[in-house]
Each structure stands twice: as C-alpha cells, then as structure tokens.
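This section describes the prediction task in plain terms. A model, or a person checking by hand, is given the sequence of a single protein chain and must write out its three-dimensional structure as a string of tokens. No templates, partner chains or ligands are provided. The sample shown here is typical of the held-out split.
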Amino acid sequence: MVKVALIGCGRVAGHHLRSIAEVDGAQIVAVCDMAEEKARAYGEQYQIAWFTDYHRMLTDMPDIDVVAIITPSGMHFEHGMEVMTRYRKHLIVEKPTFMHPRQLNEAYDFAEDNGLKIFPVFQNRHNKAVQRVKRAIENGELGDIRIMSVRVRWCRPQRYYDMAPWRGTFSHDGGCLSNQGIHHIDLLRYLGGEVDRLSAVLRTLGANIEVEDAAVGTMTYSTGAIGVVEVTTAARPDDFEASLSIVASKGLAQIGGLAVNELQVFTPDPSECVVSREKIPDAYGFGHTTVYRNLVADLAGKGTFPVNRQDCLNSLNLLHAFYRSDEVGGWVDVPDGVPSDRLGRPNDEISGLYRVATPRIRRTV
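The expected answer:
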C-alpha cells in the first residue's frame, strides 16, 4: 500500500484526495496546511491525521511513502526539496511542477542520486478525448500534422488574484500561460511533438497584476507543422472554452469543452465524438485518478510513470520560451532552453509567507 500525504489544502486538494481514495494500492494518511481550518476540514472529512506543520507530519508519520506538493507554484521547489532531503520521500507535484528549469534539474538530480522519484501532474493528458486523438496520431488515422491550435478563454477577475499574495506574481505563479494554460502548452508537445521556434506577445488586460492575463503566439515545429496559441483569463463574465484542434493530412480533430474534455470533431470516425467525451464537474476533470494509478504501478514495479524528467523539462522549457519571446520581442529557439528573465525569479518576501519556521501542534481526528 502506497501511503500518501498532502501538503497544501487549496483548490485542487480535493481532487487529489478523491482520486487517491479511488485507486487500489493507494491510501491517503495525512493532510497539512498552514491554515488550520483547511487542514482540519479535510482531516475530519477523510478521517485522517491533519497538521499545520509538514515537518511535524513527516516526523510523526515516518511510514509516509509519497508527499503530494500542492502548495503555491513558486514553493514547489523549496517544499519538495525539503521533503526529499530531510525525509527521503517520493514527490507528486502539481503543475507547473517547478517554476524554473534550474529548479527542475536540481530536484531531479537529487532524486536520482538518492533513489527517489518525482511524479509530475499533467492530468489532462488522460482525458478520453485527448487519448483518442493521441492514438489517431500514433496509428496514422489523422496523417501528418499541419496546424496545431489552442484556445483557452477563461475568466479570472481581480478578486481571484486578490485571494492570496502569491497569485499573479512572476515568482510564485506566472500568468495565464503558466497557471491556467500550462496543460495546453503541455498538450502542444504531447500531441504535436517538439516545438522548434515561437514568437509570442503577452499583455495584462483585465486585472491589476504584474503577469500576463492574455497571450498569443505563433509556433513552428521541427516536423514543418505550424501552430497558434491564444490563452487568456481576461474573458468575461465566465469561463468559455479550453480547446485544441489539429489540422492534419487525413482529417481534422478538435477537442473542446471547459477543459479539453469533449471530442467535438473527428473526421476519421465521427462516431468517436460520442464515446470520447466526459462530462466534468470543473476544469480539473478526472485525470488525477489515472495519475495516481500510474504512480502506484511505478512504485510497485508494474509500470513506468508516463511523464519522465526530459518530458517534464521540455514542457517547462516551452513555457519559458513564451515568456522569453515576449522579453526579447521576437522569435526564440525553444530547444536552446534559455529561460525567461522573469518567470520563477526569487521573491523571498512572498516565500516567507509559506515557510514553516517552528513546529506547530499536531492534531488528529
């Protein structure tokens, strides 16, 4: 039985907890959050131990196998490294895994040197619609990809960014690309292959934040295909779509819905549009369950987790390329891996708000 503990009881924590409960071979044993009311609520709901200090949690419960890092994005590296270096636990890390390629490489270097594993979360890869299109690309149903297109039109008003000091910052969040659009950036690679070059423009149009809430970009792939990206959280008054379409030599595939959960057009076999869709309660979907199944299989030696170090690094490099292009005002070469000057830059003042400096009282149900 793989025993899992969560650090961070924010918006996505409930999806992790429900997913773990559905996976044979996985058991949620503890949750932790600096906000006592959040940790207590999940602890009581799942009848598990809850903490406000993850150091105390990992000291009191040494049999924990895996720690889910669901803290602010800019704290993933610091929290993850402490969990690995002090307590020698495996990590499952929410998007965007780490904010900077340097952090990713340091974390993976340590994990590999010490027999530990890092499991990045890209749950939208497991959506039925995405998987059906992936198979169509691999088996030749769609033919050669000619154009990749992404549209994310979501609404995040000022009150969303005002919820916490890390939101809307380059150090701990990033904007619509790094936070909301990261899954679609990942799918550009997962389905289309490696992006060669890109040119992007980022703007802040709908909120008083330092990062972008609107981005457009043009890409070229090493295969000769081209791509276009539109991502925004400045849509009003609600979320409208998160779609991806592929124009290929043998047909067209379009995945839409709130979070790429509906196969809307599939010319090789239109009947697939009925069976390859999911009705999801929110933008998170159901993919976390598959992520945890893959994690359990990997640790049991019965499978290999599908997102490895290089895969994760390539998606992070692609993300940084969008910011880098905006910074230099033109085209950038993605394989060069040159990071953004802004995304993931240190901000010790914000980091200090999410550090646990002294042990706190442990409480259990």
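For orientation: Residues 358-365 have pLDDT under 50 and may be disordered.
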